[in-house]
Model the fold of this input.
Amino acid sequence: MIRALFILITLCLVWHDNLEAQPQETAPGTYIIFLKDKKNNTYKLNEPATFLTRRALDRRTRQHIAIDSADLPVSSFYLDSLRRIGVNIYNVSRWLNTVTFKTTDQTLLTKLGTLNFVKTIEKTQPVTLQTDEARETHLAEAYDSSSYGWGYRQIHVHNGEYLHQQGFRGEGMLIAVIDAGFYSYLTLPSFQNMLKEDRIKGVRDFVDRDGEVNKDHTHGMQVLSIIGGEVENSFTGTAPKANFLLLRSEDASGENMVEEDNWATAAEYADSLGADIINTSLGYTVFDNPLQNHHYVDMNGTTARISMAAEIASKKGMIIVVSAGNEGAAPWHYISAPADARNILTIGAVNHSLVRASFSSVGPTADGRIKPDVMAIGQGTYLQSAYNAIASGNGTSFSAPVITGLVACLWQSAPEKSNIEVMNAIRNNSDRFLDPDNNYGYGIPDFKKAMFFLNPAYESKKDILVYPNPFVYSFKIMYKAQSRGDMLIEIFNTSGKKIFVKNYKITPGMAGELKIEDLAYIPRGVVIIRATSGNHVTSVTALKL
Done:
């Protein structure tokens, strides 16, 4: 058996009012500069297309999110000034307006303290990697008789297969997985379909910056398989047709607190490329040095920098799905950061009988909010192992991606809804919604009910189904024909302007499929597709990318 990692590292910031309060260092140190402002910036708020992609801007437009100063890159004038005096920049965060660098040069540190655009400098301390008792168990050749294979149970408890049956399998959705590495994803069977279909839209290593993540830790690969893996008749993930960004922020070989800043930078990168969802199965609690430990009082959503970054990511319109942590049976007991952040989904773990796993961290947050938000199978979760086998593993690291994939499919069904509306639909349609607690949160979410909650006009006997949704150049309509032998298809923008119309011949009384093509000219955004057959009119909402 091999060990499956749930990464628990810790952030400790030694605060100093000025540089002179810093201890003298004789070993390499890592520092974070907080800048005072973003003046002398070459970018302008009224020209956001110069620093955000079209997809990122579209996400903000759909959710009525204004571009603000947090979106602006860090001032290039300040960065150039730092480089000129010898700062070797390691990371830059536009959301936190920080620069991370490494040095042992005390003269340089003194010089930095004299710069008028430097607010504070903080030292980060190294910590060691904490692992849980999560295990992978290699399986026999037998598997579930359904087409989902070993993945069936972890999807079925949420009615997730209903979303798939309705044509919502994650098509067009962009999920960023921020993790410790994606070992052998290029060759393992679960990922061959997504590779053939060119659904890996970006890969970046924020630790080594070597341009690849295929040779790093297995943990992110396992998480990715739970969301998007496919092995015919053997295993299916919760969003098997989604697009992905594979982002490494965690160095599992030798932990250093700079990884919180790596995470923030990775989240910003995901935002800039227009990601819809971020999955992060990482958590921060205590340090090797007890003097540097986080305390429960810090789990308030505003103290840990990674929690601050997660909250900003949510404000930018993304859904952040975070593992609760594996400290439920340990002295710490409570959730870790960023699971304490506001306006995110924190996921605890249950076993296949839907009983809370003893290791699953509990709430509340230090300021009294219910956590976790919801639960998914995280004890005995099926996933791709580092070998060719499908295996089972334990940890909230693995319950979080179960929910992440289903969130993608749910949001695909209602693309006009905001991230907050989608998260509320998930909580409101969980089995403990009327009586939440800090062991189970709102309970086991039912994604079929959540879909109806977001789409009240949607019925299981709906006369048309549009897929893929979102679409780019074309889409298909599955229909049940009415009395007349034709169907009028019209497409409207949200202002009510008709931008497409065409009549199609169909066979009365029969079910069938139409392909609506050559739609590249239609502007990006939410559209309404109306199908008229006889006296019967049906409308659905879709998203044009």
The longest strand covers residues 525-533. The two ends are 44 Å apart (CA to CA). Residues 2-124 form one domain. The chain has twelve helices and 27 strands.
